[in-house]
Amino acid sequence: MILNAISAPRIFDGRQYHSNSALLWRDNHIEAIVPLEELSSEIPVQLFSDSIICPGFIDIQVNGGGGVMFNNDTTPATMQTITEAHRKHGTAYLLPTLISATPTKISEALLACQQALNDRLPGVLGIHLEGPWLNPAKKGAHDSTLFYSPSLESLQQLPWPDKGQLLITCATERVDVGALSWLEAKGATISCGHSNATFEQLPAEKLKHIDGFTHLFNAMSPLEGRAPGAVGTALLTDHAWCSIITDGIHVHPQSVLLAHRIKPKGKLLIVTDAMGSVGSANDQFELDGEVISVVNGKLVNQEGSLAGAHIGMDESVANAIQWGIDEAEVLKMASTYPAQALKCEQLGYLRPGFKAAATVLSNEYQSRAVLVDGKLY
Ligand SMILES: [Zn+2]
């Protein structure tokens, strides 16, 4: 394979900035970042003016995009539509996310994931199951009639993929340590979410099985003076990452800044929690037969509850920078940190030997191009 190159006035490699340099890759791997003046004239280079190149964005919670919802059609074709819609927003890789569903639908989704991974569908890292092992008191837009506490037998019956990343959001107060350990042994990353846990329901022996907390502040027991809740526990548990939605609607910007101040470096990461309306001209879609509409930039169900977000990763990044978090840190919150949360060792940095994955943003943080598995889109 020939050597390829892209260049921009600024490249952020996940650790430091390089000015007027080019990112070089061959096949699916990064070779180097070199100053433009040292680049051989034989290497074709695509120049992006007024731009910044950073590690490819990774969104670990995407329910839909391009007018489709993963829940409505659990197929590799839907995964492809979703990844294409989010690529326009700078996302190189994502986890298609299944909202609480029946065991039959969960099985279909897991098989579709296996198929997508076998076929090397660009941009799909694995799957995120958000439920149905959730707490009805924090159901959000999920159908709580589908919720249950999983037995080992019910977990064993599902066709788990044998490759890729598996992220499971569950209300850990409703899942026993035996089930959590079984999922861990399957290679799952466990995140506590849609949880009404008290601080006392999240003791150390449970927390050691919890890798993260899903969409911090949303659909979880709040932090109060006499009751730290899931939010307080998430903020206090240094080993656990927290994902957060930065659309300015789900979480107040000041609460995002507060979480950023409290969590150790690397443990706060951005998710979009995007729905089918992202990258689509339609401002309505169906979820489990219920109509979800965009009203003033908010996605709401018929009860008026927030039902996911109407935002892309590039806009989420722009918001967090505008609110005052350092640019390099925000770029890592959308790339390096989610890669670490999922233990993807070859993603999250622009380093020799790492996967050829990058996001090119305008100086206003709008996506201009995305490099996925060595292909520039
Ligand atoms: Zn949720």
From TrEMBL:
Gene3D superfamilies: Metal-dependent hydrolases, Urease, subunit C, domain 1
SUPFAM superfamilies linked: Composite domain of metallo-dependent hydrolases, Metallo-dependent hydrolases
Matching Pfam families: Amidohydro_1 (PF01979)
Classification via InterPro entries: Amidohydro-rel, GlcNAc_6-P_deAcase, Metal-dep_hydrolase_composite, Metal_Hydrolase
Keyword presence, Transferase: no
Annotated keywords: Carbohydrate metabolism, Hydrolase, Metal-binding
Residue intervals of the Amidohydrolase-related domain: 188-375
Record bears the keyword Metal-binding: yes
Family: Belongs to the metallo-dependent hydrolases superfamily. NagA family.
PANTHER family: N-ACETYLGLUCOSAMINE-6-PHOSPHATE DEACETYLASE
Official protein name in the record: N-acetylglucosamine-6-phosphate deacetylase
Organism: Vibrio variabilis
